[in-house]
Amino acid sequence: MRLAVASACSWIALGAAHAQEAQQAPAATAPEVSATEAEAKVDNVVTVSGSRISARGFTQPTPTTTLSADDLAKTAKPNLFNAIAELPALQGSTGRTTSTNSTSSGVQGLSSLSLRGLGPIRTLTLLDGQRVVGANVTGVTDVSQFPQLLVKRVDVVTGGASASYGSDAIGGVVNFITDKKFEGFKFNVEGGQTTYHDDKNGTLQAAWGKAFMDDRLHVTASVEYGREKGIDSPGFGEVGPNGRTWYKNPAYQIRPLSATTDGKPQYTVIEHAQQYQYAKYGLITSGPLQGTAFGLNGQPYQFNYGSNGVPTGTGAVTGCVNPFCVGGDLSGSVGAGTNLAMDLTRQVAYTRVGFDINPDHEIYMTANFGKVKSEFSPNPGAAKNANLTIQCDNPYLPSSIAAACASNNITSFQYGTANAIFPENINVHPTRKMQRLVLGADGRFPVFGKEWSYDAYVERGVNFTDIIVHDITLNARYNAAIDAVRLADGSIVCRSTVARANGCVPLNIIGNVAVDPAAWAYIAPQNGPQQHTRQQQDVGSFNLSGEAFETWAGPIAVATGAEWRRESYRVSGDPYGNGVTADTPNNASYPADPLLNATVGNNWYAGNYHNAAGTYNVREAYLELNVPVLKSASWGEANINLADRQTKYSTSGHVESWKLGANWKTGIDGLRLRAVTSKDVRAPNLSELYAAQVVVNNVVQYQGNTVTIQQRTVGNTKLRPEIARNNIFGIVLDRPSWAPGFSASVDYFDIKVNGVISALTAQQEVDLCVAGNQEICGAMSLNNPVATNNYVTVQAFNLASLHSEGYDLEAAYRMNLKNWNLPGRLTFRGLVTRNIHFLTDSGVVGTIPSEGAGANLGATPRWKGLLSQSWDTDKYSLTLSERWISSGVYSNEFIECQTNCPVSTVQHPTIYNNHMKGAFYVDLGGTWKIGDKATAFFKIDNIANVDPAPAPQANLSFGINPTLYDVIGRVYRVGLRYNF
């Protein structure tokens, strides 16, 4: 018998061929076996990550993409995460270019993989088939903490696998498989930068392995260091970083619903959007002095609104739609001030020691240390959207403004500023340190003439996450410092005597003036927001597999096992963010201040971290069977795969997951059919159950105004597991005799997830409250006179549902050029995912399902593809690859119209133009072997330097979609690999 894994031709730029499994054929006609196949093949047994079964002749029905070490090396990425995330089925993954506009989310710098756009929390990421402690309280792992040089292949299971692997595998599984018996020494060194001379990066990796004691003791070790320096913020204005000219302040201009009876659209996508509720150095935003801005040394001038806008004195501006005009004074724009990519440093050490007790039994230990440190700036300054009150007796006001106050009989006015005078931008520093130890045993033994294999292990994994924020202000101190008054002796002080008694130093925010260092130290103390998290995972697992007995059609294979797991975490925030409690006593670093809320906390501009703790445990057992049902010369071969898993969570009780699949190698040359249906689950994670209250700044549209709010997110211990139904049907053409170098497949997938744990956005809650939902109105307060007291509470419930439907297309053709007396071989490959539907239903009365497929502001375009053309010889190789994202819309809920538009609704707003461009990227890479052991390589990504499509927002916070588009630009990398 022979094994033929269809992933023999797998490849990173394509995304690789779906792993096709063991098939029987005469040994004399066996085709060439790739390195990946050879590694997967042991004594005629193959293990494919789509199943727990390890047996001869097993053909598993779940599509699986396999990437070999050679595939991964060709991408020349500084992080394997970036290579895997390019696969079309991977949609919505997070990396160092995402969440760069966030201070408090906790996922900044986290490299986590997402299948089908269902999110990292619904994609199970494993290391050698074992769970890895999460790097975030959501439970998702950080691929950057994995040992990468020793990875010999990565299996991507593009279908539900909860029955085989447990919770979180709704979207599928990504399994990193290391070379456990590596011998020798190898290293990889590479470096690169963008065409803009930024994001300079370097990687240094080394691995060593050796066998001792007559090949009974095997030791492997690796160390890795990588640095990607990121792309810094250019600061304020409509200026992209380091010469990037594509940033043009895209935004939605949104008219009130009540105004849409005139036949004109409610939404218009604009460029050069200008906020009219603040200016770079300050702007009076209402009253008789509205439109007065301040420049150098506080000199007043008439603000240029753009759109020929004229202030009305009421806060509105004629010719503009709240909160934007078009053009005008763009110097205070903050959208371009977000880092495009974080500065990220990886340090990883890994070792595995295995000892063969005898040829059939091994005990082993693995130890993994991973440290990932990020740094970025979410935005410049700290914009205040017309929510400040300046008294007319403020001594920093020019005399002309004080006189204008008196002549207009006013004592104060509303004011907005981008706070561009701040000496430093907010900067966030997340650091994650993983310590993971595994003790295990594996082996094989005979039972009634059949060979069975087992593996058992216990694991302790701990991740320490520290998020520290610098150069950020305390709201109450800022408000006290800007409210200045002149005393009889001529000195300028803070108006509040309480603030003065506690160290308040007045701050001048009227115009472009230097900030007093003492005032800066008062409003932005050196000890900024801090969050310290300890997350622990303990696992005990035992798995057994083998062949029970023979039938006329072949052996019945069995896999069974049990697992116990405990997940726990404890997080603590600083006293100013959390509030002074018994768990977080006040100390000298955060002295008491009566201006600050000592009970609730939430005193920082952003990054208000709170204390929390939680734990849960899981007990589960599973059984999987592979039953041959057909073996015929004319009808072919077929098998059925069944699995059932019983799971009990300490928090939510019992849940069952199962799988039923079939695979038929038909009698037609090369044609195979496969199908699988499964029930999959995802249990609520620690964050959803026990999340500390997280408070972030946000803005919502309320009663025609942009309102600055605190968004408060809390956990819910009453959550239940999500339940998914996953259906897949595929047709595979595997190297038929009439085209031995050709393979192709089509797989249709349909995933429905009910009881989805999710929360509405703050804006959705506000809209529902306005529509009359009193229950949701109780979760917010938007009418407080002090803007920092406005809030919206966001909490997760099992209300929503998801429906992902589409199909994967794959084709590969390989030809040997020696038939034409030419050197080497050519390989043509392509993998494409088509999203038919990605429906999200919030489950709340008054809302409708939202269609995400083709909405390019999200993560699920209609089409996502990878193509590759490779020429390989024994000495050289060249690979040209293409990445494609289809054009789409901003939202499928929009109704596009220019005239005679229907009246806009919350569910179906009208928009002038609902088209968002796609993208087509071309990459080129090559290698050159230097002698027998060294290989030099180069890679150019995004050769044409294609710009990202503008991504309009309601609040101008970002303006791009890094989840879907390349926001970095052309990148050059070169390196050297050496194998001793």
Automatic annotation (TrEMBL):
<keyword id="KW-0998">Cell outer membrane</keyword>
<feature type="domain" description="TonB-dependent receptor plug">
    <location>
        <begin position="60"/>
        <end position="173"/>
    </location>
</feature>
<keyword id="KW-0472">Membrane</keyword>
<keyword id="KW-0675">Receptor</keyword>
<dbReference type="Pfam" id="PF07715">
    <property type="entry name" value="Plug"/>
</dbReference>
<dbReference type="GO" id="GO:0009279">
    <property type="term" value="C:cell outer membrane"/>
</dbReference>
<dbReference type="InterPro" id="IPR039426">
    <property type="entry name" value="TonB-dep_rcpt-like"/>
</dbReference>
<comment type="similarity">
    <text>Belongs to the TonB-dependent receptor family.</text>
</comment>
<keyword id="KW-0732">Signal</keyword>
<dbReference type="InterPro" id="IPR037066">
    <property type="entry name" value="Plug_dom_sf"/>
</dbReference>
<keyword id="KW-0813">Transport</keyword>
<dbReference type="InterPro" id="IPR036942">
    <property type="entry name" value="Beta-barrel_TonB_sf"/>
</dbReference>
<protein>
    <submittedName>
        <fullName>TonB-dependent receptor plug domain-containing protein</fullName>
    </submittedName>
</protein>
<keyword id="KW-0812">Transmembrane</keyword>
<dbReference type="InterPro" id="IPR012910">
    <property type="entry name" value="Plug_dom"/>
</dbReference>
<feature type="signal peptide">
    <location>
        <begin position="1"/>
        <end position="19"/>
    </location>
</feature>
<keyword id="KW-1134">Transmembrane beta strand</keyword>
